[in-house]
Amino acid sequence: MAEQEALPVVSPPNASWTEHHTSPCTINVINNTGRPVQLVWLSYDGSEQVYNVLESGSEAHQNTYTTHVWHIKDEDGRSLIQYAGPSAKIFVTAAGISIVGLPPAPPAPAGAEAGPSDA
Questions:
Q1: What is the pLDDT of residues 60-116, one digit of tens each?
Q2: N or C: at which end does the chain have fewer Cβ atoms within 10 angstroms?
């Protein structure tokens, strides 16, 4: 798949926690920092839930929704990026972060729960 133009970091108006939504998307995180990073979801009440710890050189695929707020944190708990938005591939390196758009996720089935779909 050819890479698309990088997307800006997108956050919902109240980015301190996740809002309910039914527009599915996928974020793929590629860790090339030389250190572990955490993929953390900010839940509906603002609490943090670690969904994945990625060792350097690994990749995680997270099904989610466009208004769900995610942080990628270093091993010391510092947020490297906050992301909420359309499907994207997020490259995390020691030099910085780049975000590349992905095709949209298929529509959610009728009656689908609006939480992280891999929960």
A1: 999 999 889 999 999 999 999 999 989 999 999 999 999 998 766 566 666 555 455
A2: N
Q: How many domains does the chain have?
A: 1
Residue at 82 is within a domain: yes
- Asked if residue 118 belongs to a domain, the reply is no
Instruction: Judge whether 3 and 34 are in contact, CB under 8 Å.
Output: no
pTM: 0.72
Q: Which residues pair with 101 in a beta bridge?
A: 88
Q: In CATH, what number is assigned to the domain containing residue 29? A: 2.60.40.780
SS3 state of residue 93: strand
